[in-house]
User: Which sequence fits this backbone?
């Protein structure tokens, strides 16, 4: 009997300690507020004086599985007059979002956390005339009235119809383009008249310089200087986006669309965008999320 009582007491102690440890871990791992992924994204808007469009883009965030709140509004400090509609449900079912494939509602469960999509619809009329805008700092409102300020990285929208009208299609004719989940992409174009490629530029390249390789032919983008192509030559562009090893960068969303600048025979300057240089982490686990949140200082 004495032995049974000791075993019973030990069992109670073990159960009590397990409960205390579990509660302690739960409190330690609980997020005080949702954590939004950082974005380093360039994407096109087709805006002209005789057109009206709305465009939807997607942001992603991590929150507690017990957090049942929905987002009702978003406001960007950089463009206070920008008209936006935000919510956890997509308003567009006929086309895909700009940044990521999305469904009408998306929630991915990882242990005590969930990753949710925030769909943001932009009224392009509220932009007025612009060549490029950059959104960084957002104020986000939830349906319970809570408001949080977040830095979303660098989200750049550029106007297909820029004010200089120096995006020309007639100099280069696309033959083919490919992209792969391993981060590689390529494009082949036919040169329609003599041109000289002068450089490759993007304001986001400095943020990913160690992750991205871009080659025009066999020449890296940082070494390009006055590369001449003749009419009917073939222009090959190859790029690689290396998978980030740093846990913070693994959860960033990337889509880099740099400009290849070139001159025609009259020395007039033009450019062509390079597409397909992107990265999204699809190999997510609960442990990776915990490491990410710890690195962000959120737990």
Assistant:
């Amino acid at each position: 009997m004495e032995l049974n009582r000791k075993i019973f007491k030990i069992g109670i102690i073990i159960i009590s300690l397990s409960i205390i440890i579990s509660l302690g871990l739960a409190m330690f791992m609980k997020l005080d507020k949702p954590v939004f992924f950082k974005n380093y994204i360039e994407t096109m808007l087709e805006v002209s004086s005789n057109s009206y469009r709305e465009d939807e883009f997607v942001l992603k965030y991590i929150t507690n599985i017990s957090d049942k709140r929905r987002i009702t509004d978003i406001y960007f400090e950089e463009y206070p007059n920008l008209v936006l509609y935000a919510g956890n449900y997509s308003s567009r079912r006929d086309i895909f979002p700009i940044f990521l494939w999305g469904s009408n509602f998306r929630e991915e469960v990882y242990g005590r956390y969930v990753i949710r999509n925030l769909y943001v619809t932009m009224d392009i009329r509220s932009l007025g005339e612009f060549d490029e805008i950059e959104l960084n700092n957002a104020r986000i409102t939830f349906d319970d009235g809570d408001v949080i300020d977040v830095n979303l990285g660098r989200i750049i929208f550029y106007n297909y119809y820029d004010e200089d009208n120096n995006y020309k299609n007639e100099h280069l004719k696309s033959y083919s383009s490919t992209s792969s989940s391993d981060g590689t992409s390529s494009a082949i174009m036919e040169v329609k008249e003599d041109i000289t490629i002068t450089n490759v530029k993007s304001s986001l390249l400095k943020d990913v310089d160690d992750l991205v390789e871009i080659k025009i032919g066999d020449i890296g983008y940082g070494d390009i200087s006055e590369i001449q192509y003749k009419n009917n030559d073939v222009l090959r562009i190859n790029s690689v986006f290396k998978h980030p090893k740093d846990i913070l960068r693994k959860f960033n969303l990337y889509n880099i669309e740099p400009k290849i600048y070139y001159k025609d025979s009259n020395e007039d300057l033009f450019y062509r965008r390079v597409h397909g240089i992107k990265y999204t982490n699809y190999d997510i686990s609960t442990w990776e999320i915990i490491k990410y949140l710890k690195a962000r200082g959120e737990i």
Observations:
- Residues 2-29 form the longest helix (28 residues).
- The longest strand covers residues 147-159.
- The CA atoms of residues 83 and 266 lie 42 Å apart.
- The chain has four helices and 20 strands.
